[in-house]
Design goal:
There is one protein chain. The chain is of the alpha/beta class. Helix content is 23%, strand content 14%. The chain contains four helices and four strands, in the order H-E-E-H-E-H-E-H. It has a four-stranded parallel β-sheet with strand order 1-2-3-4. Strand 3, helix 3 and strand 4 form a beta-alpha-beta unit. The longest helix has 7 residues.
């Protein structure tokens, strides 16, 4: 599946510079994120996935889903997607209701 196919479920997401990149899996666990994955940065009660963006971007993830696009700009990496919200439609579809 490509990023374009995955993110076509909602118009609120911005595709970056690799819209036809193939993705291998989707994760919200920064410890398991690897090249080709989509990382969903989730704000939880005790952890905030946005704190791990630099780490997952260094592993060449295909894309990240973030609440605030400026969080990606701060790590100096241009992933395939910098998008609005794990709390939105896509985040809900990707990670479910925890």
């Amino acid at each position: 599946m490509t990023l374009t196919e995955l993110f076509s479920i909602s118009s609120q997401f911005k595709l970056g510079n690799k819209p036809f990149c193939e993705i291998s899996s989707i994760t919200s666990d920064s410890r398991t994120a690897k090249a080709g994955d989509v990382f969903v940065a989730v704000r939880g009660r005790s952890h905030d996935g946005h704190r791990y963006l630099q780490d997952v971007c260094a592993r060449n993830v295909a894309a990240v889903v973030v609440e605030d696009e400026s969080a990606v700009e701060l790590v100096g990496h241009d992933p395939g997607v910098a998008a609005g919200g794990p709390g939105g439609d896509l985040g809900q579809a990707l990670i479910g209701d925890d």
